[in-house]
Write a structure and sequence with these properties.
alpha+beta; Peptide Deformylase; five-stranded antiparallel β-sheet; three-stranded antiparallel β-sheet; 34% strand; binds cobalt (II) ion
């Protein structure tokens, strides 16, 4: 596995709509392994492929509930509302206040192309929404009601 460079806001790749993954092959597995190493090294809750410069519908999420690899993910429904702090590995040194659904149900494929569904609540739901937004070129800063400086942790 290798740790990948995380691109920062201002890079046009973060604003592109990502394309669907068609091949569930070794190249995808390596990408997922590298994204896992990167999100752990950066102490993130999630990472989307555009953040490492690849415009494909792939995210990893690393939360209390577990580590999830989501390929071609789609939110099936969302419910409720939560408002809280959010940050992004591509927006270093900032946090913002963002309102998100409190519960989401999502469908996605695993690294072998098999379909799965998950239900996420609370912070997990926030992470799913944040990462899936990346796949459509949306950053949390577009939705934040306030943005403030925080100490970068690297
Ligand atoms: Co992010």
């Amino acid at each position: 596995m290798s740790r990948l460079f995380v691109v920062q806001t201002g890079d046009p790749v973060l604003r592109q709509k990502c394309t669907e993954v068609k091949s569930f092959n070794e190249k995808l597995w390596k990408l997922l392994d590298d994204m896992k190493e990167t999100v752990r090294a950066e102490n993130g809750a999630g990472l989307a492929a555009p953040q490492i410069g690849l415009s494909e519908r792939v995210v990893v999420i690393d939360v209390e509930e577990g580590f999830f690899e989501m390929v071609n993910p789609v939110i099936l429904f969302s419910k409720g509302e939560q408002t809280g702090p959010e940050g992004c590995l591509s927006v270093k040194g900032k946090q913002g206040t963002v309102t998100r659904p409190d519960k989401v149900k999502a469908e996605y494929r695993d690294r072998y192309g098999k379909k799965h569904k998950l239900t996420a609540v609370g912070f997990f739901a926030r992470a799913v929404c944040h990462e899936l937004d990346h796949l459509d070129g949306v950053l949390y800063t577009d939705k934040a009601t306030e943005l403030y400086d925080v100490e970068a942790d690297d």
